[in-house]
Amino acid sequence: MDEVFDASQFLGLPARSGPVDVAVIPLAYELTTSYGMGTADGPRACIQASAQVELFDQILGEDLPAGATFVTLEDFEAQAPTLRLQLDEMLGHAMPWLNGQCFPLFLGGEHGILPPIIQAASSHPLVDGDLSKLTVVQLDAHADLRSHLNGEIFSHACAASRSLDLGVGRLLQAGVRAYSSEEAQRIVSDQRITTFFARDTQHPHTGGVAWSKWLEELRELSGPVHFTLDIDGLDGALVPATGTPVPGGLSYWQAVETIEVLFANPHITVISADVNEITPQHDTPLTQFTAACLGTKIIACHLLAKREGRWKRTELVERGDAPSYSFEHFKQDGPSP
Ligand SMILES: [Mn+2]
Question: How crowded is residue 329: how many other Cβ atoms within 10 Å of its Cβ?
Answer without folding.
Answer: 17
